[in-house]
Design goal:
The complex is a heterodimer.
Chain A lengths: L3 H9 L5 E3 H19 L2 E3 L2 E4 L4 E5 L13 E4 L2 E2 L8 E5 L21 H10 L3 E6 L10 E6 L7 E8 L6 E3 L6 E3 L2 E3 L6 E3 L22 E4 L2 E8 L22 E6 L8 E6 L3 E9 L1 E3 L3 H7 L7 E6 L13 E4 H6 L1 E4 L2 E7 L3 H16 L31 H4 L4
Parallel strand pairs in A: 1-2, 11-21, 14-24
Antiparallel strand pairs in A: 2-20, 3-19, 4-7, 4-10, 5-6, 5-8, 8-9, 10-17, 12-13, 15-16, 15-19, 16-17, 18-19, 21-22, 23-24
Chain B lengths: L1 E8 L8 H9 L2 E8 L6 E8 L2 H12 L3 E5 H4 E3 L9 H5 L5 E3 L6 E3 L9 H5 L5 E3 L3
Antiparallel strand pairs in B: 1-3, 1-4, 2-3, 5-8, 6-7
Helix pairs in contact in B: 1-2
Classes of the chains: A alpha+beta, B alpha+beta.
C-alpha cells in the first residue's frame, strides 16, 4: 500500500502524518484499521530502561611516545575497560566496576559507580581519568600513561550495545521468605511485589512484532542522538510463545544498536546502580515504524491490553533456570499498579520509565515532522518467526582427563 | 492542623520529655513515625503533630525553645528533579506510598505529607536522586 520511499517523500515535503504509538491506539479505535492505515504514515515508539548489555567503543588517539594498551590494562575513573584489541581502541562495558569495589561482600552491595556512570559522564562532556598500562614494544615503547580524556579529545566514541530494547520481558516476583535484590529491582518476599520492565504499547519491538520494518540498518533514536540497528541482539529469540495474531507473550526479539556517543544527551543515557546486583545503564531508544499497510496499522495500534507477559519467580525458578511461568498478565493490569495471580492481588511496579518512553516517542515524532529524520529500508532482515532459533544453554563440563587420570 | 516535622536533638536535650509536654500542655496529638535517639550522638525524630491552630503554633514555639531543630519533612528529604528518571524502583519499596507512580503522567510523584523519612528510597534509587539531610 505504501513504501518507505514514498513515506520519505512525504517527510521531505512536510506532508507526513506521524503519531506516537499511544496516539495510534486511539486513532485505530476511531477510524478502523483500513482508514488508519491510509491516514497514518509513521508511528513512533520509545523505551527507557536499564540495559546492561551496552557499552562504548573509543579510540583514544596516540600518545608520544606511543603506548600499546591493546593486550595491556586500561582504567577509566578506575573502572576497567576492555583493551584486547588494537593499540588505543578500548571498549567500556556498562556493568564494569572498579577492582576495589566491595561488590556484594557487605550484602546488599551498593555498586555506586561503574561503566554506566563513566559513559554518562563522558556524554556530559566531563573529563575522565585514564590510566593505562602496556608491556612495551619497539613500535610502542611507552608502558604507562595517566591523563584525562573527554568527548572533545578522543577520536571516535560510539555506543555499541549488543542487546537493547527487549521485545517484552518477564514480570518478576519472589516466592521466598526473604527480600531479593535483583536486576529487576527489589522483590519483596511472599509475592508482595511484582516488577516489570517494558514500555508495553510504546515499546519499539512490540509494535513491529514480526520485524517486518525493523532490520539491520534501521535508523533509530538512541540515547538522544541518531543510531542504527547493527544486528539482531544477543539472545534474539523470535520463536517464543505468541498470541494467535503473532504478539510475543514472553521476552522475544532484541536488537544490537550502534550510535555516535558524542551526539548523545545524558538525559537519555544514565548510569544506574541496582542495589545488591550491580551497575547498569539506562538507555533511551525509539524506533519509527512505517505504516505500510493494514497489517502494520493493526500491529502499531495494539494496546497494553493486548500484550501479555509471563510472571516468573526470581527466588528459585529464575536463578536455577527452571522454565516455569506462574501465570500471565497484560500490561494494562501491570500499569494499573496491581496484578491478580491465581486469586492473589500483587502490587506491580515498573523499573523502566514510561514517562521517558513517552518523551522519546514525542521527540522522534517531532524530528520526523520537521524533516530531520528519514526512515530507512532495512539492509537485511533480522531472523523472524519460524527461523528455528533456539536459545542454547551453557552446560558445565570438565576435561575427560579428570575422569580417566590419563595423560598423553 | 496536622504536619510532619523532623526534630533534631542536641545531646543535652534528649533527656527532656518533650512529647509528653506537647500532649499535656499543648493538647497536641502526636505520632512518632521514626526515632533515632542516642545519648552519644545527635538524635532525630520524625514526628507528626495535630491540633488546633493556636495549640499547634504554641507547641512549635515550645519545641523551638528547647534547643531543637524543627524542620518540615520536605525540607530535609529532597529529590533531585534533574536526576530522577521516573523509573519507579523507589515506589516499590516506599512503605507509606509517599512515592508513587502517577497514573496519568506515569511520573513518580512524591507526597511529602506521607513520607516518614525511612530512607529506603535513598538506598535503592538507581540514579541516586533522593537525599535526606539530617545534619
Amino acid at each position: 500500500m505504501k513504501t518507505i520511499d514514498e513515506i520519505n517523500e512525504k517527510i521531505k515535503s512536510g506532508k507526513v502524518v506521524v503519531v506516537t504509538a499511544e496516539e495510534m491506539v486511539e486513532i485505530a479505535k476511531e477510524k478502523g484499521m483500513k482508514k488508519a492505515a491510509e491516514y497514518v504514515d509513521v508511528v513512533t515508539t520509545g523505551t527507557f530502561g536499564p540495559m546492561c548489555s551496552s557499552g562504548m567503543f573509543m579510540n583514544l588517539g596516540h600518545s608520544k611516545p606511543r603506548i600499546k594498551i591493546g593486550g595491556g590494562k586500561c582504567l577509566l575513573n578506575d573502572v576497567p575497560a576492555y583493551c584486547g584489541i588494537a593499540a588505543v581502541d578500548i571498549y567500556l562495558g556498562a556493568t564494569s566496576i572498579p577492582d576495589d569495589d566491595p561488590r556484594n561482600m557487605v550484602y546488599p552491595g551498593e555498586f555506586k559507580y561503574g561503566g554506566g556512570h563513566v559513559i554518562e559522564e563522558f556524554i556530559r562532556g566531563k573529563d575522565i581519568r585514564l590510566v593505562a598500562y602496556g608491556y612495551g614494544t619497539d613500535c610502542y615503547p611507552n608502558k604507562r600513561i595517566e591523563t584525562y580524556i573527554n568527548k572533545e579529545n578522543v577520536n571516535e566514541a560510539y555506543l555499541y550495545n549488543p542487546r537493547n530494547s527487549y521485545q517484552n520481558y518477564n514480570v518478576a516476583v519472589n516466592l521466598s521468605n526473604r527480600i531479593l535484590y535483583t536486576y529487576m529491582g527489589i522483590l519483596k518476599p511472599r509475592l508482595q511485589s511484582a516488577n516489570y520492565c517494558s514500555a508495553g504499547q510504546l515499546s519499539p519491538l512490540l509494535k513491529d512484532p514480526k520485524y517486518r520494518t525493523i532490520g539491520i540498518g534501521t535508523r533509530i533514536f538512541l540515547g538522544g542522538g541518531i543510531g542504527y540497528v547493527a544486528w539482531n541482539g544477543t539472545q534474539h529469540n523470535p520463536d517464543v510463545l505468541r498470541s494467535e495474531d503473532g504478539l510475543p507473550r514472553a521476552g522475544a526479539g532484541t536488537i544490537a544498536t550502534i550510535g555516535d556517543a558524542k551526539q548523545m544527551d545524558s538525559k537519555f543515557v544514565r548510569g544506574a546502580s541496582f542495589i545488591g546486583y550491580g551497575v547498569s545503564l539506562f538507555i533511551g531508544l525509539g524506533i519509527p515504524i512505517p505504516v505500510l499497510d493494514e497489517e502494520m496499522a493493526y500491529y502499531t495500534s495494539r494496546s497494553d491490553e493486548d500484550f501479555y507477559a509471563q510472571v516468573v519467580d526470581y527466588s528459585n525458578d529464575y536463578p536455577n533456570r527452571i522454565p516455569k511461568s506462574l501465570g500471565e498478565v497484560n500490561y494494562a493490569q501491570l500499569r494499573s499498579g496491581k496484578i491478580n495471580l491465581a486469586g492473589t492481588e500483587i502490587p506491580a511496579f515498573p523499573i523502566s520509565s514510561y514517562s521517558k518512553a513517552r518523551e522519546i516517542a514525542s521527540i522522534l515524532k517531532a524530528w520526523i515532522k520537521e524533516g530531520s529524520f528519514l526512515l530507512t529500508n532495512p539492509v537485511a532482515p533480522i531472523p523472524g518467526v519460524g527461523s528455528g532459533i533456539k536459545m542454547n544453554t551453557l552446560e558445565e563440563r570438565v576435561p575427560d582427563i579428570l575422569f580417566t587420570g590419563e595423560t598423553e | 492542623m496536622k504536619r510532619r516535622f523532623i526534630l533534631k536533638f542536641k545531646r543535652n536535650t534528649i533527656d527532656k520529655p518533650i512529647v509528653y509536654k506537647l500532649a499535656k500542655d499543648y493538647h497536641l496529638v502526636f505520632n512518632i513515625l521514626r526515632a533515632n535517639i542516642s545519648p552519644k550522638a545527635d538524635s532525630m525524630m520524625v514526628l507528626e503533630i495535630e491540633g488546633d491552630e493556636g495549640d499547634f503554633r504554641k507547641g512549635l514555639e515550645y519545641l523551638k525553645g528547647m534547643n531543637l531543630d524543627v524542620e518540615p519533612i520536605e525540607q530535609d528529604v529532597k529529590r533531585d528533579e534533574e536526576k530522577c528518571v521516573h523509573c519507579g524502583v523507589c515506589a516499590s519499596v516506599c512503605p507509606p506510598n509517599a512515592l508513587y507512580v502517577n497514573k496519568e503522567t506515569y511520573r513518580v510523584d512524591f507526597d511529602y505529607e506521607r513520607c516518614v523519612a525511612c530512607e529506603h528510597c535513598v538506598k535503592v534509587c538507581p540514579v541516586k536522586a533522593i537525599h535526606v539531610y539530617f545534619d
